[in-house]
Amino acid sequence: MVEYRIDRRSGVATYVQIVQQTKQALRLGVLEPGDKLPTAREVVEATAINPNTVLKAYRELEREGLVEARRGLGTFVRRSLGSAPADHTALRSKLTAWLDEARKEGLEREDISALFTSVLDEKCPEGER
Amino acid sequence: MNRDGEGTALEAVGLGKRYRRRRGHVLRDCSFRLPAGRICALVGPNGTGKSTLLALAAGLTRPTEGTVRVLGTTPARARERFAYVAQAKPLPPQLTVAATLRLGAELNRARWDRTTAERIAYGPEYGRAYGPEYGDTAGRTAPDLDLDLDPGPDLVREGALRPGDRIRSLSGGQRTRVALALAFGKRPELMLLDEPMADLDPLARRELLGALLGEAAEHGTTIVMSSHVIAELEGVCDHLFLMGGGRIRLGGDPERLLAAHTLLTGPARDLSGHTVVESHGTGRQLTALIRTDHPPTDGWETAAPSLEELLLAHLRNPEAPDLFTEEPEKADEGDEAGPTGGTGDPGTTAATGVTGETGETGEENVRP
């Protein structure tokens, strides 16, 4: 069973935190196909967040085909999220090259992080897939 | 699955209230609609009529003008279906906790949920603490049996209630727990809670808020709670009423209210054409909270306000125009719309958690 930890000050929407943490659990194998997600009531009692937020997160996970709601039974994991780091070798080396270039131009760690975040936000806004 | 049920939990049309001894209205021309199934926060400065509004909804006092309808009917007719917990948590001081819960059970025979009430009163550990020793085989639990039997310090959390404790010996937070237990035990469709969290320590606050929301998740209960601590409501409520000037100034889903506002920062410049909630500047730089109905021109740095920023900006600026993200609907004509002082039997008063000294008379004698 997965347990959610909600950070109210993170600025990340609460339902997105639940979606992200579920995906993380799927990647790490903490959740496997057939596992049941906690009920809205269980999540809400443990975290004191609005019940609709949990339902919204579960709908999002369902829309992505990761879980399915079975009427009267609960929400169950349909598939896991395994992506071996090896798959990203090419991407990783490109990013490393880009970072080397950024360092050469005199950008510091925080400049690079700000730049990356700004492009990330532009290309993959929060809440999108 | 969506928790938003059909119908309206709470609705006011032209609601007004003035107390004889005070000058002017506490509430004036107040209209709003709260759909069923919402978790609603009622926020606003002290003395803006939050408690009065809840007391009117609970049928404890009569409106001077206008009407309030609860669960589609008058407060008196809806009494069995809602619970009201007053700010002062008035409870009979001489009773024990167990006897108070028993009273709730007797007065709400048709709907009493004993397990839930006891879980709220004695904490989530109560099953462990009282269960094995007393056994539940005869359908009896601790409160029926030896009330003074102490389950031992290691089993019960510090400060937890025991069935034999008398109400008068309890702290404010412990009384809140008992009052909420009565409200929960009734299994209401609507809970009206006046500053329910004010007396609670952080642990109890979290636990009871979780329990409250859990109940709502399971049964679709509508919850209205007043508070002046804005931060604790973020992420909890999906409906918000900001009170001020005797009426509701902002109403609706917090996300939509937030989306209707933009925080601007930039070189000082004319903002005419925009609905400005608040603006302040330091010579060259200007910061302003505006309504997003007209998108700002270029050259501004824009940001989304936080709920706290939004509410504080409105509190500081009483002149900002009202905003409802959902229009209040007009009440049906001629359908039991008149104000009423209540026809229910007096007993239900205590069991709603309503133990206010004025009871059902509903006249001008409820002190603010």
Could you walk me through the main structural features you see in this protein, from its secondary elements to its overall organization?
The complex is a heterodimer of chains A (129) and B (368). Chain A is mainly alpha-helical and 129 residues long. Chain A is built from five helices and two strands. Chain A has helices at residues 14-28, 40-47, 51-63, 89-104, 109-123; strands at residues 67-70, 74-77. In chain A, strand 1 and strand 2 form a beta hairpin. In chain A, helix 1 (14-28) packs across helix 3 (51-63) and helix 2 (40-47) crosses helix 3. Chain A is elongated and about 60 Å long. The model of chain A has no long low-confidence stretch (mean pLDDT 88). Chain B has 368 residues and is α/β, with parallel strands linked by helices. Helices cover 26% and strands 22% of the residues of chain B. Chain B has ten helices and 14 strands. In chain B, the strands form three sheets. A seven-stranded mixed β-sheet of chain B has the order 5-6-7-3-8-9-14, sandwiched between helices. Chain B has a four-stranded antiparallel β-sheet with strand order 11-12-10-13. In chain B, helix 7 links the parallel strand 6 and strand 7. In chain B, helix 3 runs parallel beside helix 6 and helix 4 packs antiparallel against helix 6. The model of chain B is unreliable at 1-5, 131-149 and 330-368 (pLDDT under 50). Chains A and B meet through helix 2 and helix 3 of A and helix 7 of B.
